[in-house]
Write a structure and sequence with these properties.
This protein has 12 helices and 8 strands. It has 337 residues and is α/β, with parallel strands linked by helices. It folds into 2 domains: 176 residues, 3-Layer(aba) Sandwich (Rossmann fold); 91 residues, N-(1-d-carboxylethyl)-l-norvaline Dehydrogenase, domain 2 (Orthogonal Bundle), CATH 1.10.1040. It has an 8-stranded mixed β-sheet, with helices on both faces. It is globular, with a radius of gyration of 23 Å.
Length: 337
């Protein structure tokens, strides 16, 4: 289960699966896209190649990369017939446990015994999915983000039965195709969705309690703390602000809203030790040990650059209001997390 992957496959050609397959193909790795039948697989490959050409026209993709996608994206016939020589297989069928179980059982029966099998699940525990896999030691999760061709992060989730070599190969493979993989623990919803869904749950409460409208919640989110999150994670932000400041905020909020805003031993122990973040030279993250002036300069450069980027995107602000000629339509299945 080691070495460079020279041929991959994606089972499930929907919005996420198709994007994953196109990304792999665009990195120069032959990738077989397998859908419910050969005709559907062929149609999806055609759609993805058309999307690539459209992206070239819009400046989102180099023409050379679109050619690489066309050279390496292959329409599969079936799970049973199309996995020969494949070293890495990603299951990307809809988030239905029974469907994933049946698909993974078929995939693991047809795949080479040394092929690594991964599920692109958003929330389902990998240990549960592993129950249907022949050779669960080679199975893990790889949670790509939507849109899969553009967002770099991928969560790599081994179960307690996954061998280290499979995790290492999965990590190397995702780097090989241009992603930024992070290995995490196997818990429901993993890290990305647990965080973003916690935010969404709190946003729902704000609306249901009459505090704000959805539009106001979105406006505040994207124009304040959301501005930071592409460059700095929540712990880095806390280290910049001051862990004692965050501790005081949580005390007020937990008093008003209950235990969902309670502090934890991690924060309490750091504050008690005088490790307050950037202002003390020690905190939770390595950022706290850097020169505060340098951190401030880099942060400010990022904010100015982000503002200029957002201002340059034509039509972005138009999305904040309903078009005058709006006609209800059914959107594509592009809602995977």
């Amino acid at each position: 289960m080691t070495g460079s992957i020279t041929r991959a496959a994606v089972v499930g050609g929907g919005y996420m699966g198709g994007g994953i397959a196109a990304t792999i193909a665009g990195a120069g790795v032959p990738c077989v896209l397998i859908d419910i039948d050969a005709a559907t697989s062929q149609r999806r490959v055609g759609e993805l190649l058309a999307e690539s050409r459209d992206w070239v026209d819009k400046g989102l993709l180099d023409a050379a990369e679109a050619e690489v996608v066309a050279e390496n994206l292959i329409a599969g016939v079936s799970i049973d017939e199309s996995l020969a020589g494949v070293g890495f297989i990603i299951e990307a069928v809809p988030e239905v446990l029974e469907l994933k179980h049946s698909t993974l059982a078929r995939v693991s029966a047809a795949a080479h015994p040394q092929a690594i099998i991964a599920s692109n699940t958003s929330t389902l525990p990998i240990g549960t999915l592993a129950e249907s896999v022949t050779g669960p030691e080679r199975f893990l999760g790889c949670h790509w983000m939507n849109p899969s061709r553009l967002i770099p992060g991928v969560e790599i989730i081994p179960s307690d039965r996954t061998v280290e070599s499979a995790t290492a190969t999965a990590t190397d493979f995702h780097r090989q195709v241009g992603k930024r993989p992070t290995t995490i623990s196997d818990v429901p919803a993993f890290i990305a969705n647990r965080l973003q869904h916690a935010l969404f749950a709190e946003a729902l409460k704000l609306v249901d309690e009459g505090v704000a409208t959805p539009e106001v919640v979105d406006e505040v989110s994207r124009n304040s703390f959301g501005y930071r999150l592409a460059a700095f994670g929540p712990f880095e932000v806390a280290d910049m602000a001051g862990l004692d400041v965050y501790q005081a905020c949580l005390q007020t909020e937990s008093g008003a809203y209950g235990d969902r805003f309670a502090s934890t031993p991690l924060l309490e122990e750091r504050v008690d030790a005088g490790d307050l973040g950037l202002k003390s030279g020690n905190g939770i993250t390595p950022l706290a040990s850097h020169d505060p002036q340098r951190v401030s300069a880099i942060r400010n450069q990022y904010f100015r650059g982000l503002t200029a980027l957002l201002d340059s995107i034509e039509g972005l602000e138009d999305l904040r209001s309903t078009p005058a000629d709006s006609v209800p339509t059914t959107a594509k299945d592009d809602t995977s997390a």
